[in-house]
Amino acid sequence: MTWTQFSLGALVLLPMLGAAVAMLLPHRGRRVLGVGTAVVIAALTVPVLVTVTAGELTELVLGGFDAPLGIHLRGDGLAAVFLGATSLVGLILTSYAAVLPKSTGTYLSSTAWVPGHPGFWPLWLGCWSGLNAVYLSGDLFNLYVALELVGLTAVALVALGGRSSWEPALRYLFIAVLGSLMFLAGVGLLASVTGTLDLQQTRQALEELDDPTLSLLALTLMTMGLGMKIALLPMHRWLVPAHSSAPGVVSPILSGLVIKAALVVLLRCWLWAVPVLPGAEWLTWLLGGLGAAAVVIGSVLALRQDRLKPLVAYSTVAQIGYWFLAFPLLLPGENDDAALASGAYSAVIALALGHALAKAGLFTAAGFLKDRCGTDEIEALRGAGAHHPTLILAMGLCAVGLLGLPISLGFTGKWQLATAAVAAEHWWLILVLGAGTLLSAAYLLRGIAPLLMQAEVDDDAPAANPVTIRERVGEFAVLALGVATLATGLLGVWLSDLLEVGSWW
Amino acid sequence: MISPLDITLGLAVLAVTGLSLIPRSRLVISMGFLVLGVLAALVWLRLDALDVALAEAAIGTGLLSGLIVWLAVRSPVPPGAGAMETSPRLPWLRPAIGVLAGASMTVVVASVWLRAEHHLPQWREAAESQLPDTGVEHPITGVLLAFRAYDTLLESGILMLTAAAVLALSRNGGLSAEGAHRLGVHQTYVPMPPVPSALSWAARLLAPPLVLLGLWLLFAGSTDSGGAFQSGAVLAAALILLRSAQVDISSLTAHWLRPLLVGGVVVFISAGLVGPLLGLPWLSWEPEWAFAAVLSVEILLTAGITAGLYALFLTLENPEGVR
């Protein structure tokens, strides 16, 4: 039992323990415990990253029962990079929430709605536990359980936003449960022909199968269910109200991390659990087409928003499209070589990680302005930048990441995607990438530029209140996310090396 | 050969499903749902899945129907009745698309399912050979608390966090009020609506046998069907009955609800941590103390599940509604 193996289990179980203990504490104690747990999780991520950097795949056989009887946790490249990103974003957002409790929602006391929700802490730690469980799981049913954990806590976190957020939260709940059920149906179908739930054993058993129809049906069901949870374009309507009505620090958690969990499960299904199926091409092309539509339509819708948080939420819908654009390139066909697929794969990961950092920063900034000024209408926020130079700088850095300008991970991802598209002669992909980048420049400008305009701010307006020290610290947390957006752009090569560990090719 | 009983059962499930979906009145819907639960439990029994049948009867029928009936009595007309607008020109379009999509999906799935060559689970032999080391005799309990204990742990975490979510949405965010040690669940202190005295007596009479049944399900779980989830559901039903009969159990809920709620998960994780301390993987039970570990985890999990399900019932009332 090495330190890394200990970390694999502890990364899931310690945040869950933290969530349980937090429920017994008063509000102040919950904040302290939350930050403490976040630091411990970040520290536990280090041994996993070190081991994977050394090129080793760590496996933990829980309870000592080998698959197919027991469950394996696997610390491979995909798990390691998402663990790293989640720990970084999670640590920063936890500190932000601890410093500015106002951002965690409002609760009803016996007389009035009070800002600063104590229920945030157990739910967020539980959500984090679920995220880590999703990344590490090597078992199809366990992936379902972990996904449920993430989905349920995410719904509850949305509902902390007060009266107006209950309806979006309920809608999100219906979608999340429906998506999970479709995924579970797919898992059941696969298990009925393979007799196992372990990812690797499922693949081996499916490769020996003559008739791919059932695997194809299962894959389609799982893809549909996960597409709902990721909010791929025609299934995106729940995302905007849920993400924009959630409390200030919850929106970045949802947009930055929670939808990535479903993406990881989708990649595990497509690339690990199910071998390349004859007849799956149409599905990859469908996903690619929906991705292209998401990039264009999501961006246009973002451009039409008058409020900052819905604008950022629609930008998430658009960015989700990029990950699906790569699907037609992801499966090595008969003529294409495997290098193409691996390039497309690391493009998806780089885009998703870059989005996790940049969108978390941008949403935190939007939530900060909404908490401070009481509104997120872009017109009303005109000139707010004069009081918050640090925040505006951070938003600019995040915008660079979302646009995909050098040196962010977004740039790395788009570059790899474009390279793969040229090699496969899919010229339409370049067109979509270009159009998406231009449109995102337009909507980000529309969101951020008014903050910089000269404007008369009334003396009694909330924006004119003196900025407290806590708010200054909160601004620096957002800046940390902005800086991380750029700094991780330098890690592109390391990222590709990490992804090689335990990859499917 | 399919027996006529199975066909009747299948048709009845379909009919009752329709009954619990189509009517507008919440009371009719909840009655339909209750019957559906009973039928589903019978279906599981016919499939020789006694454990699933028990869980279905306890949680699906007993508790969920309890919650739904409560809702139907409190507000018989759904607030959203008719809110799902049918388009004025083509009122049949949405149902038609729904039926068409459902039918084609059923046909596709059924044809693929029937054509495929099914395999029995590969873990069957391994489960039988390793069961003696786990300290339990019933294979399903073995799967739940030893082989796939990790899944069970995450699921009990989900139940705990569900309770955390509903507590967070009640008054004071589920925290104790300032200066008081009692739980800030205002519903605890709101009296239940009066019930006929006969019902109250029936509830008082029913509660002790229910508690006994719950405990039997818990302890039988190591050798026979039953276990923490079924037992917790029955115990929670007993608590709900007592509360409905206006027996004052608020001191229990005020002080013990939250500790009980988290106790199962805390002890489960601590027991899982013993493995790494001894140099074994997470969640390993050594044969010498496996039975003790599994039993204490199961008892506290039952308490946690009871508390969680009871918390769901307690917080049904809208926090804004009662002032």
TrEMBL record, chain A:
Protein name (record): Oxidoreductase
GO CC annotations, alphabetized: plasma membrane
Domain NADH:quinone oxidoreductase/Mrp antiporter transmembrane: residue ranges: 137-439
Membrane-topology descriptor: Multi-pass membrane protein
Signal peptide positions on this chain: none
One example of a Gene Ontology biological process annotation: ATP synthesis coupled electron transport
Spans traversing the lipid bilayer: 6-25, 32-57, 77-99, 120-137, 143-160, 172-193, 213-232, 253-273, 285-304, 311-331, 343-369, 390-407, 427-445, 476-495
Localization of this protein: Cell membrane; Membrane
Taxonomic superkingdom: Bacteria
Lineage: Bacteria, Bacillati, Actinomycetota, Actinomycetes, Micrococcales
From TrEMBL, chain B:
Subcellular location(s) of the protein: Cell membrane
Keywords, comma-separated and alphabetical: Cell membrane, Membrane, Transmembrane, Transmembrane helix
Na+/H+ antiporter MnhB subunit-related protein domain mapped to chain residues: 200-285
InterPro entries named among the record's database cross-references: CPA3_antiporter_subunitB, MnhB, MrpA_C/MbhD
GO cellular component: plasma membrane
Domain MrpA C-terminal/MbhD: from-to ranges: 13-75
Membrane topology: Multi-pass membrane protein
Residue intervals passing through the bilayer: 28-45, 52-72, 92-114, 201-221, 227-245, 257-283, 289-313
Family of this protein: Belongs to the CPA3 antiporters (TC 2.A.63) subunit B family.
Protein name: DUF4040 domain-containing protein
Annotated organism of origin: Nesterenkonia salmonea
